[in-house]
Amino acid sequence: MIRTKGYAAQNPTTDLAPWDFERREVGPHDVQFDILYCGVCHSDLHQIKNEWFDGVFPMVPGHEIVGRVVKVGDDVTKFKVGDLAGTGCMVDSCRECENCQDGLEQYCKNGNIQTYNNVNKYTDGMPTYGGYSKTIVVNEDFVLHISEKLDLAATAPLLCAGITTYSPLRHWKVGKGHKLAVLGLGGLGHMAVKFGVAFGADVTVLSTSPKKEEDAKKLGAHHFVVTSDPEQLKAVKGTFDFILDTVSAPHDFPLYLSLLNTNGVHICVGVPTVPTSFPPFSLLDGRKSLAGSGIGGIRETQEMLDFCAAHNIVSDIELIDVKNITEAYERMLKGDVRYRFVIDIATL
User: Fold this and answer.
1) What is the pLDDT of residue 275?
2) How far apart are CA 169 and CA 47, in angstroms?
3) pTM of the entire structure?
4) What is the DSSP track for 222-245?
């Protein structure tokens, strides 16, 4: 076993704190890389607090992980010592179902294995521990190549915030000639703006905060709508082809569905913690669709990383010391980050 250090929640009522634990030894198909940076995702907080489901504790969060390879198994062909590497939200899947065969491991019909807060039933039966730690061991099929061209710390959030927004935009072929609205300008939303603009869409940011207009324009958005202003909403009613909804708080779905044009699609990537409902006529009027999308498969995530390297796209980040993680969570809940916290693992 490999001894290492991390930051963990011992149960849902405790803050994260230093914790020594063990990783598995490097197997024939495994890659071990020392973690240099790990992004902080809102889902980290949801999971350590059991807001979605009962977790596996002690829990080491973190699924936006980048670092440098220090050891590879005897049968590894995709990586060598010294390579930059990354791991996102998954570390394994069944590999056999039709979704896995199609490169859609995120929708594995037998259940993918999450990078943390899970037990790997396909290998060693051990709990998985995430990237708020010094090193990690992952099967090479779930390790991603990271370009030396990009700012490494700012690349980390691409492994969740990036692929979560890239994947639906690619699936629905959003691009030139489309009017795309991005609902919410946070960790996910700011990446949605960057990708939407890069793909050639006409991008509008929908936000409750007028203060974010300047930032939205700096990120490349063409338009900005304050959703608390009835007149501004009226002006865009029935105009959007797509809404990419990044909001994780309860919100008014019928209101936003009314902003879609005929055949428009409202795509949810944010995950509110409470159930929602809406009248069926908000969909029937205009043959609109309410859809969802969850991260991306390994092949598509590598495609996204390569696209980012070619177009110099990374996240806007604030680098933090790991000892300040509880304060970072508090600020994240207030929207006080532009736009993603990233932990410098050298501070662990």
Assistant:
1) 83
2) 26
3) 0.95
4) SEEEETT-HHHHHHHTT-EEEEEE
